[in-house]
Amino acid sequence: MLQFKAMVRKKLLMQIRDKKTLGVDTLFPIILIIIGLALATIVIFKNGVARDMLPSLYEQGTGGMILMYNDKSETLTEQ
User: Fold this and answer.
1) How far apart are CA 79 and CA 66, in angstroms?
2) Which of 20, 35, 43, 65 has an alpha carbon within 20 to 30 A of 12's alpha carbon?
3) CB of 61 within 8 A of CB of 75?
4) Using the 8-state DSSP alphabet, how is residue 64 labeled?
């Protein structure tokens, strides 16, 4: 504990001597934290309308369920 107190005292004395160290070691991280919290409060995406997710909403083909992805559709059949 004695060494820790000596290191803290040395750090404080060095900061008093060098004003740039005070700014870089304390003010700069505080400013970055404030900027990060401000960016976290920005809402980018708006919440959409709730949608029903029911299997009955999708078409059923005669050979099986129709799967749609991109511009192509395929029929899924049981084997």
Assistant:
1) 15
2) 35
3) yes
4) S
pLDDT tens readout for residues 49-79: 777 777 677 666 666 666 666 655 455 555 4
- Retrieve residue 42's tokens: 């920005």
The pTM assigned to this predicted structure is: 0.37
Q: Which of the 8 DSSP states describes residue 63?
A: S
Asked if 40 and 54 count as a contact pair (C-beta separation under 8 A), the reply is: no
The CA distance from 12 to 24, in Å, is: 14
The pLDDT score that the predictor gives to residue 79 is: 46
- Give, for 35, the enclosing helix (H) or strand (E): helix 28-40
**How many angstroms separate the CA atoms of 59 and 42, rounded?**
39
